[in-house]
Every structure is written in structure tokens, then in C-alpha cells.
Amino acid sequence: MDNPAPGPVWRLPAVPGLSDLVSALQSAGYRVIGPQVRDGAIGLGEMHSADQLPFGWGVHLAPGGYRLRERPDMAAFGHSAGPQSWKQFLHPPRERLWSAHRSAAGDFTVEPADPEVRPLAFLGVRPCDLRAIQIQDEILGATRHPGSGYAARRAAVFLIVVNCTEPGETCFCVSMDAGPRAGPGYDLLLTELTDPAGHEFVLQSGSAAGNEILNCLRLEQASPAMVCGADDAVDAAAQRMGRVMDTADLPALLVETLDAARWDDVAARCLTCGNCTMACPTCFCTTVEDSTDLTGDHADRWQSWASCFELDFSYLHGGPVRSSGKSRYRQWLTHKLGTWHQQFGSSGCVGCGRCIVWCPVGIDITEEVAALRAEKDARAAGPGQQQSDQP
Ligand code: SF4
Ligand code: SF4
Predict the structure, then answer these.
(1) Sheet hosting strand 157-162, strand order edge to edge
(2) Measured between alpha carbons, how far is 361 from 309 in angstroms, rounded to an integer?
(3) Domain check: are 376 and 254 in the same one?
(4) Closest residue by CA, ligand 2 atom 4
(5) What is the rounded average pLDDT for all residues in the chain?
(6) Are residues 234 and 132 in the same domain?
(7) Ligand 1 proximal residues by C-beta, below 6 Å
(8) How many domains are there within the chain?
């Protein structure tokens, strides 16, 4: 979905404005999903009022580490990516695909599952996560799978994106061209300002549905100074990325380093737990499982998230194709950053940093790419510069 040419820019006072926004969305029939503090983290859940937003909370992020921190201000969106992404609402972890019944007369019927579709408003989508949703749209959405549950759920989603002014220590959306300023595709776009002039938002609409919600709000035009302040805050965020990934010729680099010694290094640390794939907002792989009741007259087929780190993920007759941890980590990284381009026309990474934070041993995708590049450069420089002779 492309956003139209920029329209008027509005000022939304933070606390009453967000309350009005949530009420307007609810009145329009949306179930509002947004960030909130729970279980020691900022997760995503249904919001009954704007009071549930994590006002005054930020996060400290590190490889294998996540901690809430109190902010010096009352920002509602002063935190970077949390453990959950929006993928759980569009591409659920477990979903029934169909049910089969055998009647007493022996007739056999198969009924496709009717996906529950309720209009959802995602409040507080980061630009990197907007990009991640668009990547999953390309893979799971209406173009390729018009009748899918994903396509039906996605069509009913209203997106309120918040430009990022608070990148975390593990963020690298700038490297992946996925933030901190939102690209097209939102219904409403907010930029949060918490300067001494007050706590407020710059607000823009990006769709007809966005205009309808705007019409329900009490708004005044944003001043030029406020618009400049919002632009500056996002520009400043781009300079404060916690991580950088050099993406120059990255797919080619990965092809040229398939036998690098670095894969053994990372395999020695990787637990093949699959956490990175579960936390990643673009990973989409699934498996299917059939279950029957005790009578044998009723069966269901379930689809659930799967991970390329599972041993049986690559099982073909006789055994798994990728039996070593090394081959599974290499598959994940080379698909995400390399062959995804050939398959879907973009990178599979948006630089959200979740795989770094939620890896129990702190494996850092940016560090692995840098090490592969260094190894390739060392090889090119000559035998004396190589890190290892190992194939
Ligand atoms: S690979 Fe890591 S940084 Fe990239 S989108 Fe997935 S979780 Fe985020
Ligand atoms: S890279 Fe980390 S999170 Fe991913 S499978 Fe290995 S140990 Fe688990």
C-alpha cells in the first residue's frame, strides 16, 4: 500500500490525544493492540485504554540481554523492539487449516477452517516492523495466497506507525533501509516529541481509513517548528544506531564464504534452539500436524511455526539434509540475508535486533556478517592473511 502525497500535518497532545485516538479506533470497530509493560518486558496486547501504554519506560538491550529502564521523561514509545513482533497476530503460532469428519453413514467431509478475522488496529508499529509486515505480505499475503487466513487478517488491520526516535543498542534498521523514518504503507504516522515544550505528537494520515479516524479527533495544525523538531528527532535517531551491518554485495559475499571457518566458530556457540527465528518478525516457516479424536471420526490439520534450526526441518526420506548445527545456522543466515533476495526480491532482515537480544548465547548477526567479510578479505589478501585454512 503506497501512501499518498504528504497531506496536512497535525499536532496531537500526548495524553489526551492518545486517549482520543484509542477511543476513536474502538468506536470504529477495531480491537486495539499496543505495547504495554508485562512480565518485565514491553509486550504487545489488547489495549482497553491509552493508560496501558508504557509511559516512562525504556529498555536496555544487549546480545542475550533485555532489561526495562525508567526513562527521564514520560514517552509512550521510548523503547525499541520488544520480544514480540506483530507477526503473532497476522501469522499465528498455531492455526487450524481444516477439519475432517466421517459420519455414522460413512460419508467423509472436509471443512476448511474459517479464520477468525476481527479488525485490529496496531498502535505503535516501528518503521522496521512496518517493513517486516510488508515482507511477510509479499510471502504470505493476498498476491500469492489470496484465500489464506493471513490475507484475510491483513486486510482488516489498521496500522498506526510511530517513527523511531529511540533506537536500541542492537538496532541497525538504517543499514537495512528499514527505518528510523517510516516508509509508505501506514494508515496513521506519529512522531513523538518529549522536549521541554511539552509531550506531544506530530500526526499524519496515509490512507482514506486514516483520514476517517482523523476526522474523529480534535486536532490543530502542527507548527513548522514542531514539524522540524520531529524531523530532527528522527534524523538524530538515524545517527544513534547501536549496530551497523555492511550490506554491500552481501548476497554475493555469502555465496563466496559458504566454506568459511567462521561457520564452525558460530556453530560452536549456537544451541540451535530456534529462538532467533521465533523472535524474528520476518521468519515465516511452518510445519503441519494432524490430530484425530479417539473415535477416529474427526481429524484436524494444524499449522504451527517451525524453525530451520530444528533437526527434522530438512528431513527428506532417510534423514535430515542439514544435520549439523553449522549447516542450520548457515542456512538461516544465508537465506535471511542472501537467497531471500532471489526468492522474494528483498532482504529478509529489517535490522530490528531481536535475534541478537533473544539469542540465549548472544550471537550477533551483525558480528557474524562482519567476521565473514573480514575472512573473505583476508583470503583475498593472500595466504599469510587467512584466519584459517580450514575448508
Ligand atoms: S534477522 Fe534479526 S535483526 Fe533481522 S529482522 Fe530478523 S530478528 Fe530482526
Ligand atoms: S543463533 Fe542463538 S537463538 Fe538462534 S538458534 Fe542459535 S543459539 Fe538459538
Answers:
(1) 41-46, 31-38, 120-125, 157-162, 188-193, 200-205, 10-13, 220-221
(2) 15
(3) yes
(4) 276
(5) 94
(6) yes
(7) 279-282, 336, 349-355, 365
(8) 2
